[in-house]
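Support case: user asked for a sample of complex input and structure output to validate their parser. Sending the pair below.
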Amino acid sequence: MPAPHTVAVLLGSLRNQSVNRRLAQIAVDSAGPDSVVSIVEGLGDLPFYNEDIDPDTPDGAGSVLDEGVATVRAAVASADAVLVVAPEYNGSLPAVLKNAIDWLSRPYGRGALVDKPVGIMSASSARGGGERMRVDAVKAIGIAGGRVVEEVRVGLRASEVGALGEVDEAIVSQVTGAIEVLVDAVDASVGV
Ligand SMILES: Cc1cc2nc3c(=O)[nH]c(=O)nc-3n(C[C@H](O)[C@H](O)[C@H](O)COP(=O)(O)O)c2cc1C
């Protein structure tokens, strides 16, 4: 049996009671046997991106890469695919997610997202289900070298996602289907 595909989740909310964390947890718990989904923890501990502390830039030459950044980069680089799960903040991406993407986009052209299939999900308050976050995430991830899989589309109202442990079968099946599409994109890119 081939090894399962690995999917690294970039979670765009730091809130303890985050609905998007619950959505991400559904992805972790309900992924099929051919995929292992894990949340990349620690995005909230990353320093704001700054070339002065990026050893790969002229201004940061001689500096030491932040340990948290190195860990997050390694988790993403070693995964077969990435799943972004984030709310919409002021019609765009939450800063914690954008900051992670900025770190992952460097060194430019050789970042951890290059050629990586990326799916996007959101649970947000407004009726659009995080569509404006999605549009901006597609743009930033694309510039960072990721390959957004447009068919992975889960955009929910936050109120639709049940409490932790309260499993809504319709949402589970949407999330499971989306992970399958994401993993199929990995196979397509390696010609399986
Ligand atoms: C600073 C801030 C800005 C927000 N802006 C939007 C927005 O533009 N669109 C929207 O649908 N919801 C917006 N919301 C509401 C979030 O979508 C909602 O609180 C969501 O549950 C947050 O996700 P979380 O539960 O995973 O933390 C905003 C919330 C905050 C705190």
